[in-house]
## 1
Amino acid sequence: MNAAKQAPEAELNDQEWADLLSPARRGVLAAALAAGGLSANALAQQATPSAATPGPAPTPRRRPNGESPWGYETYREATPRPASVRPGEQHLPREPRPYTDIESYHAHIYFDEDTYEKAALLRKWTAERFKVELGNWNHEPRGPHVTPSFYFGFSNDLLPVIVPWLQLNSLGLTILLHPNTDDPRADHLYYTLWVNRSQPVNAYAMKKPGPGEDRVEQIYPNTRPSVKIETGRA
Ligand code: ZN
């Protein structure tokens, strides 16, 4: 039966995802998110509903007498409206954003200690076939990316080939495809395409380029394709 055939693979993928969110890794994620300034909102909701409000200095987590470090009146605290993590997007836009604002794309390929060989293979295949800007390995969280990753940037004209190519050659890896406009935070959080499962991206603190910086992230291809892209039996 098809269902019986597919079951082991599905279980494996679910287990991989469960491993990704294991307590140890959740700790790493929490640290990365906290470092990026997300603590006042998402993280604090788990810790205490009043974390967005200025309060007393942090209390030691352990009390020798077994008392709660938060006291016993937390349920009485007011519920302030948190500051938006989407500044500038509180109002409905009057008209659509021109798609021509997209100047290029990035593909970020995520992996871990169990899937790095798949990432290496996909990286090699990509460099052999596409003229892209291939970044180096990120063995630790880097920028808004909270797991090991690598990326390649590509020009808009490659999009109609790269998207289906990645769909069929992801090897099950999680891949973030984001455009490059003049709004990097939105590029990473709201203008995204994902291949397979999505995962957290800590881009809330990303800002638009300042004076003297490129208005939009630029792509400088550094690969020399040597393999013709496979197109089927013909
Ligand atoms: Zn990127």
## 2
Amino acid sequence: MRTITLLTYLLYSLHLFGQNESNKPNIILFLVDDMGLMDTSVPMLVNKDGKPQKHPLNGFYRTPNMERLAKQGVRFSQFYAQSVCSPTRVSLMTGQNSARHRVTQWINPETKNHGPADWNWEGLTSKDVTLPALLQKNGYHTIFSGKAHFAPTEYEGADPANLGFDVNIAGCAFGSPGSYLGVDGYGNLDPKRKKRAIPGLEKYHNTDVFLSEAITREAISAIDNSLKKESPFFLYMSHYAAHSPFQTDPRFGDNYKDSGKSRPANSFATLIEGMDKSLGDLMDHLESKGVEENTLVLFVGDNGSDAPLGDTYGYFSSAPLRGKKGTCYEGGLRVPFIAGWAKPGKANSFPIAQNAVHYQQIGTVMDIYATILDATGTKNPSDHTIDGVSLIPQLQGKNNPDRSDHFLCHFPHSHRSSYFTSYRKEDWKLIYRYKTKVGKRTLPQYELYDLASDPYEKTNLADQKPNKLKTLTEQMMAQLKAEGAQYAIDSSKKELRPILP
Ligand code: CA
């Protein structure tokens, strides 16, 4: 596999030699919906000396179990996701960037969202190469729990069981739950919420069990079944939290009642804390079963924060980063990523740096596919192009020579930020807009930021650095071409393609 460095490969080959089925590491991919980089008490950003730096939002949220995982693992300051759900979710499953897999917009369960003529609004199918199907073939018991959002209603990929998962708990076509409350049957018992009623979980209907808790209990039970089978497991633990509706998780409401923030903002914080409890419960359970040293936990968000804290383009939801979910700014694209063994120890199949912050290189959601294949000794099919790389060198605190220095977010659709491509290359960031009129606003066609000196995207250098702007636009266009990007169509049926400044 091209993503593995020679050294890692050699070490890994030695490690795999003589390994039997039962000591392949278990993997938990712990995905949180709409959680941005700052929605946690774990400081993810660093100061000039590379030391973690707390910002006010770190003081608002309470995530003690993320702190626990961060202490025994490595966290990334510069980890990129797509700006909305489905593009990231398909990247996690395929290792491809959204311009390549063509799920460039969130999948509306009922209709095709506006965009390029044949963007892949039908999502994943059983014919696609997917991470769980590859792991399944390699002897893993594959468990899905929570929010799927891989394909529209009544399409094959709406059910994760058709995409390589042995077990599907509560996953379906949509991304927003009708209700988080057991008394509402998660939408099934309330006619107003029925359109987005969560499937399964009937035994928790009419109870006080919050949705985040129900999917965690069911995931734990599925893990126990895997352990009985003596096969390694892959758990894709995918929280509906903290997506709207912003309902309060009553277990944590008191912690925020004096925050001085709005009711929805406090509710969002309770959704985050309930998700964090789930992480702790899973880690505790692994310890109780004695498999904590042989279980790798990868924690990640699916797009920038959607915390209801203020204006979309400003410095609120992801402060000090600019913007939020759905935007082209860093607050829309940067997410928390933490990797660690459920417990560090002799049974870990490779070492991971502890209490470490990796800020030197970027990481992306495309890398998770390659990382899990690498960690489990699973091969990527030779005809399946991937855009990510294995992060294992970075998890060990080393420079990753395979790591590309760019991240491309191509969004030829209408949403909060519409018709844009955002391209980070080294420390430079270009935002290109295919339409400059968005609602009542007129926005610049080009924005250029030097993230090294201006990490919060305050000074647009597009006019001051014409040569840099031109070079970066050329590089962005080449990358779009390499990934086979599609373009939106304007009212005169003309493709909206980028143009050089
Ligand atoms: Ca999302």
## 3
Amino acid sequence: MGRNILLVGFMGVGKGALAREIVRKENSLYTLDTDDMIESLTNTKIKKIFATAGEEAFRALEQKTADWLAKNVSNAVISTGGGFYKVKNIKDIGIVVYLRADFDWILERIMGAPNAKKKLKKRPLFQDIEKAKALFYERYEAYEKVADIVVDVDKNGFDSITHMIIKRAF
Ligand code: S3P
């Protein structure tokens, strides 16, 4: 079984977009997104899961998704929710690539997007910028600890980041 590539990092860093770009360049790979998997499993939007069941229930769904991925999936590029790095068996799923960027770059990327309002609205942990910033600093080192590869997405163009990941992860 070929191993998976797992993209981790803070909200808004571009995990989904990069995953799609990698599979576009490397055929015979598929992309999966853990938030999409949870939404399809529960038939509920992430925002609603947070509002009704709470964050702890959401984290349990992330763990359930991790268990399923570790058991059933290979040869995929998997983008993850910003807190997915906390699952206990992340290394059993695949090679972990941390997309690193500073907070101001992330904020600019989200705010500068044409659909910024929508991007913010669907993220319960990005409703208050100061709180999101605190969460960013709380997690900063933890992402590095769990990563096999660290890529600075705020210092490189999209194309070279994609090449870097493909070169280092396969
Ligand atoms: C979260 C990030 C979100 C989503 C949920 C929680 C987090 O995914 O999983 O809102 O804890 O950082 P994105 O990183 O795709 O925004």
